[in-house]
Amino acid sequence: MKLKKIITIALAQAAACGAAFAGTGETAETEFSQVNKTDAYVLETVSPKYPSEMLQRGKQGKALLMLRVNEHGEVSDVKVLASSNKLFSEAAVASVQKWYFQPGTLDGVAIPQTVTVPVNFEIEGMDTPSLASL
């Protein structure tokens, strides 16, 4: 019974879409133009301050951040998507707020973009298997 209802809804939606085009009397033309788009990339970074408590305990970790890069390459709206520890999150956010990006472009014009950035906290000389997982 559920399948019949889903099929009926799908057919009704398809018919409605077709009716919208059929009623105009014009043929639908699709113009395929090549869009020239580039993504933002990092120009300058500031290393995060390793949380002293985690360093003393020999803990490594990481944070995955989502941030907004404006058309001037400046960072805003930093959000933590995942982190192995709150202390790593705080240090990572403080760090990336000072980063500077080459902004993304659309047809040669700078545009704001959302970027995902991993920040790793590793103790030099320590094997990576002890790196905390997200």
Description of the molecule:
28% of the residues lie in helices and 31% in strands. With 134 residues, it is of the alpha+beta class. It has a domain at 35-123: 2-Layer Sandwich (TolA/TonB C-terminal domain), CATH 3.30.2420.10. The two termini are 42 Å apart. The model is unreliable at 1-27 (pLDDT under 50).
Task: Report a brief summary of the structure.
The protein is of the alpha+beta class.
Helices and strands, with pairings:
Blueprint: H1 2-22, E1 37-38, E2 41-44, H2 52-56, E3 61-69, E4 75-83, H3 86-96, E5 100-102, E6 104-106, E7 109-111, E8 113-121
Antiparallel strand pairs: 1-6, 2-5, 3-4, 3-8, 6-7
List keywords for this structure.
134 residues; 8 strands; 28% helix; elongated; disordered N terminus; 3 helices; 3-stranded antiparallel β-sheet; alpha+beta; TolA/TonB C-terminal domain
